[in-house]
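Protocol check, entry for the methods section draft. Step 1: assemble the input record (protein sequence plus ligand SMILES). Step 2: submit for complex structure prediction. Step 3: store the structure tokens unaltered in the notebook. Ligand used here: fe (ii) ion. Step 1 record:
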Amino acid sequence: MSITFNKPPSVAFLTGQFTAENVIKKVTRSGDLSGVFHDIAAWQAIPSDTPIYEVEMLNSLQGEGELYVGMTHLHPGRVGNEFHMTRGHFHQRREQGEVYFGIRGSGLLLLQNEHRKAWLEHVSPGSVHIIPGDTAHRLINTGSEVLSALAVWPSIAGHDYGSLAQGFAARVVLQDGKIQAKEVQNG
Ligand SMILES: O=P(O)(O)OC[C@H]1O[C@H](O)[C@H](O)[C@@H](O)[C@@H]1O
Ligand SMILES: [Fe+2]
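Step 3, stored output:
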């Protein structure tokens, strides 16, 4: 029997680019984010094919106990006064957590529990975010460059977008030249 040396995938820490044999890429465009931004007129004014974020995932095992690894690249910009953000989700398997690592750019991680209590964490290169179970999560790019964050999560977690149809309890906007978080009743 011989012991093999496998070449692992790698990530460039400055850019978040993966080098791997198999990378699965998904682009989320403005037109996919209906109902996400509060200024509907501003959202409608953006061409629907404008990319807002890309997620690259390593090809890994699925099933109980296995982990997924993905990189989100969220483009800078605003829709009206609201910063670009991911759709955000609870996990379908609600109790499953996730870890995010800030790689590039600067932004915020919006977290929210099932009682609509929301809080924010600053995302910057090197930041580590331990997302507990039962907690919805969304990335927000408040900077002027691409915000890239690495995520590791259980492959069985799944996504539940429906439970957030009402939106998150906070919005992050540029107001009076400052980044401000606003509490909202009905997202
Ligand atoms: O699913 P969204 O809310 O659009 O977020 C985009 C992606 O962000 C992270 O990389 C998560 O780990 C992915 O599971 C998620 O799909
Ligand atoms: Fe997640």
